[in-house]
Amino acid sequence: MKIAILGAGAMGSAIAYGLLESGVAPGMLSMANPHHDKLKAFEELGVTVTTDNKEACQSADIVIIAVKPWVLPDVIKEIKDTLHYNYQAVSVVAAGVSGEDLKGWFDYNGYCPTISLSMPNTAVKCRESMTFVVPVTGNERNPDIELYGRLGEVKVIEERLLPAATSLASCGIAYALRYIRAASEGGVQLGFRASEAQSIVAQTVKGAAMLLANGEHAEAEIDKVTTPGGLTIRGLNAMEKAGFTQAVIKGLIPD
Ligand SMILES: NC(=O)c1ccc[n+]([C@@H]2O[C@H](COP(=O)([O-])OP(=O)(O)OC[C@H]3O[C@@H](n4cnc5c(N)ncnc54)[C@H](OP(=O)(O)O)[C@@H]3O)[C@@H](O)[C@H]2O)c1
Questions:
Q1: CATH number of 3-157
Q2: What are the tens digits of pLDDT across the range 18-34?
Q3: 141: confidence class by pLDDT, cuts 50, 70, 90
Q4: pTM over 0.70
Q5: What CA–CA distance (Å, rounded) separates 72 from 7?
Q6: CATH says 166-252 is which class?
Q7: Is residue 71 in contact with ligand 1, taking CB distance under 6 Å?
Q8: Is the CB of 95 under 6 A from ligand 1?
Q9: Which of 41, 78, 197, 251 is 20 to 30 A from residue 59's alpha carbon, by CA?
């Protein structure tokens, strides 16, 4: 599968690094960005780079568009004449854009390519993304599922769930990191150096996530470490008294 990525910003670059890490040959990847400086590192890795979106799309089986939402209509207008709708699929990574918008922008005399709206998070870079795919058009097997499957977990969802998915998993990376920062600051107060505290907390969070990935139940795992009258239950209750659960839910569903 030949892949083109339009936009070498935070998401486009993270996807590219993840794909290379997953074993995609640099020659199978092309990237476009208006400013060449963001492409240099990929050029050095052997990726085909260009400042011309149309050139990047040539011979790609799937075109990933990872630009800011307000730039998207212009990028689509620019490439739609050169896209082969019958075999080139498009994967749009943009928050706040609807399937109907995309169908309208891609429409060419009533035809559209296979389009999906995809919502990865920045952990695509280390192939641990939680990616959501909304198939917008096309009945055949969606190529996004295979592509993002190389970069972590993939869930195909209905479009109505996309805002919730974005909050939980894309913004969620920031929320999880904020927990890690808070716990690290506590670790410094307890006597560890900041860098040590952060790596201890990160490994602890990774361990907790791995337990869940192995099918364990979160509350059952918590029960295992809460000795009656012990330190953990005192800590959990103090966190709840300070509004931990409510603060997290409020963050996911702000007023
Ligand atoms: N960051 C996340 O966690 C996340 C998660 C899910 C989805 N998203 C979505 O991903 C999209 C990209 O976000 P981002 O965080 O990667 O933004 P970003 O870092 O600003 O990257 C956007 C890139 O698009 C390039 N660009 C601008 N105009 C272009 C054009 N006409 N053709 C090709 N490339 C162009 C920019 O180039 P220059 O800077 O050189 O002008 C920049 O490198 C957004 O729509 C966002 O909603 C982001």
A1: 3.40.50.720
A2: 999 999 999 999 999 99
A3: confident
A4: yes
A5: 10
A6: mainly alpha
A7: yes
A8: yes
A9: 41
Contact 96, 68 (CB under 8 A): no
Domain ranges for the chain: 3-157, 166-252
Task: Give the per-residue SS3 of the chain.
Answer: CCEEEECCCHHHHHHHHHHHHCCCCHHHEEEECCCHHHHHHHHHCCCEEECCHHHHHCCCCEEEECCCCCCHHHHHHHHCCCCCCCCCEEEECCCCCCHHHHHHHHCECCECCCEEEEECCHHHHHCCEEEEEEECCCCCCCHHHHHHHCCEEEEECCHHHHHHHHHHHHHHHHHHHHHHHHHHHHHHHHCCCHHHHHHHHHHHHHHHHHHHHCCCCHHHHHHHHCCCCCHHHHHHHHHHHCCHHHHHHHHHCCC
The closest of 126, 53, 66, 136 to 95, measured between CA atoms, is 66
Does 129 score more than 80 pLDDT?
Answer: yes
For the CA of 166, the closest atom of ligand 1 is: 6
pLDDT band at residue 140 using 50, 70 and 90 as cut-offs: low
For 173-216, write each residue's pLDDT tens digit.
999 999 999 999 999 999 999 999 999 999 999 999 999 999 99
167: which residues sit within 8 A by CB, 6+ positions away?
252, 253
In this structure, the strands spanning 115-119 and 62-65 are unpaired
Give the atom of ligand 1 at the shortest distance from the alpha carbon of 12. 16
